[in-house]
Design a protein that fits this description.
With 96 residues, this protein is of the alpha+beta class. A hairpin with a 2-residue loop joins strand 3 and strand 4. The N and C termini lie far apart (34 Å). It has a four-stranded antiparallel β-sheet with strand order 1-2-4-3, with helices on one face. Helices cover 42% and strands 20% of the residues. The chain has one domain: Gyrase A, domain 2 (2-Layer Sandwich), CATH 3.30.1360.20. It is an enzyme of class 4 (lyase).
């Protein structure tokens, strides 16, 4: 049985995480964060790497100078699961 959230479940879950958006494919969620400086972006990514290791659930991270995009999906399940929503919350807690 798949833990992938249905469209309605995902939309409901993201009401608590307004900074996150659903990708066009519907198979991942993402958040873009802009920092004032490159070093701030890297510090944030390092902090998130630590919590991702603890949770054994890793976001895809794209760094473009001071702009960082975090993408979450559960690859084994082929979509967004409760584990992704939980990681989004942990990322939000560090950033906000």
């Amino acid at each position: 049985m798949s833990d992938v959230l249905r469209d309605e479940e995902l939309a409901q879950a993201l009401k608590k995480h307004p900074e996150w958006e659903i990708s066009d494919s519907g198979k991942e969620i993402y958040r873009v964060v802009e920092f004032e400086e490159f070093t701030e972006a890297i510090d944030c990514v390092n902090d998130i790497a630590e919590i991702a290791e603890e949770a054994q659930h890793h976001p895809d991270i794209d760094i473009r100078y001071s702009k960082v995009t975090f993408r979450l999906t559960t690859h084994d399940e082929g979509g967004v699961t409760p584990a992704d929503i939980e990681m989004a919350q942990r990322i939000d807690n560090l950033i906000d």
